[in-house]
Amino acid sequence: MKGIILAGGTGSRLYPLTKAVNKHLLPVYHKPMIFYAIEAMAQAGIEDILVILGGESTGEFITLLGSGKSFGVNLTYRFQDEAGGIAHALDLAENFANNDKILVILGDNIFEYNLKNDVEVFCRSDAKAGIFLKKVVDPERYGIAEIKDDKVINIVEKPENPESNWAVTGIYMYTPQVFEVIKTIIPSDRGELEITDVNNVFVKDNSLLAFYLEGYWIDAGKFESLYLASSYVRQFQNKGGGV
Amino acid sequence: MKGVILAGGNGTRLNPLTKVTNKHLLPVYDKPLIYYPINAMASAGITDIIMILSGNMVGDCMCLLGSGKDLGVNLTYKCHDSECNQVNQLWLARDFVDSEQLMVIAGDSVIVGGNQRSLVREFLKSKAEAGLFLKEVPYPERYGVADIKGGKVKRIEEKVISSGSNYAITGIYLYKPYVFQVIEKFRDSADELNFFKLNNYYIARDSLEAYYLRGYWINVTKFESLFRAAMFVREEHRKNDS
Q1: What's the ipTM?
Q2: Residue B34: left (phi > 0), alpha (psi -120 to 50), or beta?
């Protein structure tokens, strides 16, 4: 299995913090944001990782992360020239994935859960896609999975009348078929290739597995969520968790 | 009156956050650290400010702040080439300050919810040659502290276990332009000059005025102080929103 970290985007919701600093280099308590996704991959036993960059000061990324040796991983980089949605960014990973299964993590997702067991379950299964769900109190802000008899039957992006509280987090697993699926979907109203549309293809195909995250999870895309991410990591540190 | 912000250093105690990011660009909740001392100066009525920069990615500081227009100030920059102490950083501001009075703030000072304007005015009108901003703190042993009598600083101490004073030295100073002559005099001597020695010079002349800083104050030096600064700014926003 290979890892893909999506760390593009301009971070405009974090302006002016992101005026001179790349969003994924901002601190989450004591480490730059991007460290967490890399460490989560390493913890899951994934060593070959592609980091997809975009936005400002990407050169500093490479200075910071280098070959990946200090994390015990092997890093490759690609650059996303234009923002076009998560699925569009993921499409840049096709050659790198080279017929392996992949674990995808969005670079601003900060979480406590160890993915290792679920990664192994997915690798052994016949499923073509896996998503990680987390219960949230404000479902209208997320992609929400509608669940029936333990199966995901639909995913709706930011629903006005949510069918559940299960948010689809920015952690996904796919077989190489995902790249064929990406080529079939059409841009959404906001002009992006949506990962939700990709996942719904697998839902309809009855080949998507849902996993459930335990512990804290947050996407650190705004001032308040960036602060909360720091505060979770700090608490976890203080109780001896030691990320 | 002119402002001097001492924003040098590599921020090594915040590594790996500062490996490719200048310490002063790290976020304190919704704004980069360096916005806070600038805003504190602006709210005190000081808009002509020089930034003394050094360390990694100094160029990014300029990219972020530009002319200062967005913050309502007028920024000039100087850069020192090597790591040097704060008084040597201040020395770089001598031509900029010229014959005006000046306020000096360390670039890692987060000050929120207080305005020093009337204190600065008091200093401008006074005969005092220098002013020291103090803040009462619960753990004075973490800071340099000052003994005060009759509004004047009588004694300052660097970090000590117990001195009896709860007033921390904040790293925010006011000087008359004469300070550069004092620094020059010391520069000729062999001893390295720091703010402790500089302020002791004024204490010996009984001319160091004590001012009590208004609002919340913290120096961002480590992960925990960076987090606490953010926590406080967030609380301040919530207070103002409700």
Answers
A1: 0.85
A2: alpha
